[in-house]
Each structure stands twice: as C-alpha cells, then as structure tokens.
Amino acid sequence: MNRTEWTKEHIAGYVQSQIKEQLQLEEDVAPDDELASYGMDSFASMTLVVAFETNYNIVFEDEELLFENFATLQHMVDSICGKLQP
What we know:
The protein is mainly alpha-helical and 86 residues long.
C-alpha cells in the first residue's frame, strides 16, 4: 500500500491494532480515551512510535516525541496523518 492509498480510517485501524497489541487489550479503545488509563507509559508509547515510523516510513523529530502527542488514539492518528501530508 502506498501513501496515496492510506486513508485516515486505514491509519486509525492500524493504530488501533498496534495499541491493542502493545497494551494487550481485547477491546478497542475510543479515539479520545486517555491511553494512560489502559496502562500506556512512555516505553509503550515509544515502541508504538517506532512501529509507526517503520510502517509509514516517517520520522518523528525529538521535539515531537512528547507523551501528550501520543496520549490518545486520535492524537496518534493526527500525528501520523500530519507526517504523510505532501
């Protein structure tokens, strides 16, 4: 799949699956749920960032790696979509 085929819905589905795998969840998380309430910590957050960078061939700069930028599924999707914009 190339960049032009990545829809926001596709990205949200991928992020959702990665969150569930990383946090060992069976249920989906709502887009605006605080992931810390599911056990997300800085290590889990950075593990997800590496997965996103690898999957989408993007790079998050050091100043973007703030926990609040990855605090919810929606924040993660928005961050990835911002990186994929031409």
